[in-house]
């Protein structure tokens, strides 16, 4: 695996690296005419989606150098090295294709790709990505034509921009709730504690609305929300496979998310993947991202958690649970946190003492 895969905010479209855009405002790696360009950022192929052997993923990885930066394309992922850090973006539609290929379809509209998952009863889940593969928005379309926005990643800055513009520099939050409520130990927690963490308001006031990319790549912003450490799932070295027994233990998490979504269909939960500190940076970041996606897929396949209310991101070894540079199973883990207040910044979610959540699962 890898050491210090610092999961970052996407890809730098500033070709000159000085904070100004070049003449080609498309910029970046995946632009028309650049080596390895693919409309929508990622190939939509059965072969890529069925790869479960990480050695094969590593062998299929291709490296490009564009404007002084190294880019690595592998099945379902693009990784860029910039200023000694690595940043990853994944195919936002991979998880949806895996869930139901017969119900999945996509089409190009200008520089954007619209993907659809059809559901019984006439509902559709629509995902829009730009030409770099960056999620723009995801929404649910009902049979009567109504649309419910779930993720609007186009909020805030638009168009080409340096990666650092998606990092929000905030001080650590002032945490005034008990530690076991701020980071819930899933193995020891009951259903009520899990539900409480996944419906809790931010631990400190949220000053404004943020984009999904800002949430993904700003650790002190994410730290404003409690989390559940799913320590019943730890991965074999070099693997992103969840065993059937580990998958069955996700029931309390799934029940809590399902009940929260039933009360508010716009809820969004971030599944975060991690590795230990052994190996190469790129492998570390890729593995952690795939681990998060594996857990999200099981939550939907086994427990009917709506996939559109989940999003995933890998962070490599950036946040070790056990501070060791040696191989450690506890560090190969996933966590989950509710990020809805960060995305929506609703008045009753911005601080402690807001409207009470619905009752916990029994």
TrEMBL record:
<feature type="compositionally biased region" description="Basic and acidic residues">
    <location>
        <begin position="1"/>
        <end position="27"/>
    </location>
</feature>
<dbReference type="InterPro" id="IPR036737">
    <property type="entry name" value="OmpA-like_sf"/>
</dbReference>
<protein>
    <recommendedName>
        <fullName>OmpA-like domain-containing protein</fullName>
    </recommendedName>
</protein>
<feature type="domain" description="OmpA-like">
    <location>
        <begin position="222"/>
        <end position="342"/>
    </location>
</feature>
<dbReference type="Pfam" id="PF00691">
    <property type="entry name" value="OmpA"/>
</dbReference>
<dbReference type="InterPro" id="IPR050330">
    <property type="entry name" value="Bact_OuterMem_StrucFunc"/>
</dbReference>
<feature type="region of interest" description="Disordered">
    <location>
        <begin position="343"/>
        <end position="362"/>
    </location>
</feature>
<dbReference type="InterPro" id="IPR006665">
    <property type="entry name" value="OmpA-like"/>
</dbReference>
<feature type="region of interest" description="Disordered">
    <location>
        <begin position="1"/>
        <end position="49"/>
    </location>
</feature>
<keyword id="KW-0472">Membrane</keyword>
